[in-house]
Amino acid sequence: MFQTEYEFTLPKGYVDGEGNLYTDGVMRLATAADEILPLKDPRVQQNPAYLTIILLSRVVTKLGDVTAVNPRVIEELFASDLAYLQEFYGQINGDGTTSMRTRCPKCEHEFEVDISQGG
């Protein structure tokens, strides 16, 4: 079966208005519309960097108990979590895998890390 949704774990987590912390979420594969339609958004036209916020709010389908992930939720993520989601987006929409090859800085041994599990 073709996988279209991928689970992830944020490095820090999303803190909602009540102080609840959520780290686990789900991101679906992006469609052409996900990448094209945000370009018409006035916030993106005024600030092209905002494209990331709109795009992620379309493809992140769940973040803890939050099932209505909107731009405001993405805006409130810590910078490291935003960077993680951008990398994760690139991974699953690039070749469809959530693992990446890395190297130990001490012994230089190469190995695979599953980034969907906070690796």
Describe this protein's structure.
By secondary structure, this protein is α+β, with helices and mostly antiparallel strands. It has one domain (5-117). Helix content is 34%, strand content 28%. The chain has five helices and five strands; from the N terminus they run ββαααβααββ. The protein has helices at 32-36, 42-46, 51-59, 71-75, 79-94; strands at residues 5-15, 21-28, 60-63, 99-103, 110-114. The strands form two sheets. The chain has a three-stranded antiparallel sheet with strand order 1-2-3. The mean pLDDT is 90.
Q: How helix-rich are the residues, as a percent range? A: 25-40%
Classification by helices and strands: alpha+beta
Ranges where pLDDT stays below 50 over 5 or more residues in a row are: none
Termini separation comes to 25 Å
Rounded Rg: 15 Å
Main β-sheet, spatial strand arrangement:
1-2-3
Outline, from the CA principal axes?
A: globular
Total domains: 1
Beta strands, count: 5
Determine the mean pLDDT. 90
The fraction of residues assigned to DSSP E strands is 25-35%
Helix and strand string, N-terminal first? EEHHHEHHEE
- Compute the number of helices: 5
- How would a textbook summarize the main sheet? 3 strands, antiparallel
Write the layout of secondary structure elements.
Blueprint: E1 5-15, E2 21-28, H1 32-36, H2 42-46, H3 51-59, E3 60-63, H4 71-75, H5 79-94, E4 99-103, E5 110-114
Antiparallel strand pairs: 1-2, 2-3, 4-5
